[in-house]
Specification:
Elements: H1 6-15, E1 22-28, H2 32-42, H3 47-55, H4 60-78, E2 87-105, E3 111-127
Antiparallel strand pairs: 1-3, 2-3
Helix pairs in contact: 3-4
Length: about 130
């Protein structure tokens, strides 16, 4: 059991806030594996080079991640007062979201299941 009253424990847990600028896209209609192909390339890069990589990447996930990077950079500038030239992608990851199940009719009355996967993509920036 934790020490203190339940409200005190919750207050201490909620006091630890991550102040790094970030942007999150929930329920993106792209699988985690396909999103991670793009995220692995931009991890650790500065904002200009990350945007350059994402802009000329032919994958569908790159258009979503481009918007996320721009949104996180705007959050850093407006909310945290950070210099946009010093920003870099500190963390970026995709978590599994819900899966839509669909049915595809096949031969001789059979039905195959099609799983349309979703993901939650997060981009966290920081200053060098």
């Amino acid at each position: 059991m934790a020490n203190g009253h339940r409200s005190q424990v919750k207050r201490e847990r909620n006091a630890i806030k991550d102040t790094r600028p970030s942007a999150k896209l929930s329920y993106a209609r792209v699988s985690v594996q396909k999103a991670c192909f793009v995220l692995d390339v931009i991890r650790g890069k500065d904002i200009e080079s990350a945007l350059g990589i994402v802009m000329y990447n032919p994958r569908y996930a790159s258009t979503l991640i481009e918007k996320l990077i721009k949104s996180a950079a705007a959050n850093a500038e407006n909310n945290n007062g950070m210099d946009p030239t010093k920003l870099y992608v500190e963390e970026c990851y995709a978590n599994k979201g819900p899966t839509m199940k669909r049915i595809k009719p096949r031969a001789q009355g059979r039905a195959y299941r099609i799983e349309k996967r979703m993901s939650h993509i997060t981009v966290v920036l920081n200053e060098r």
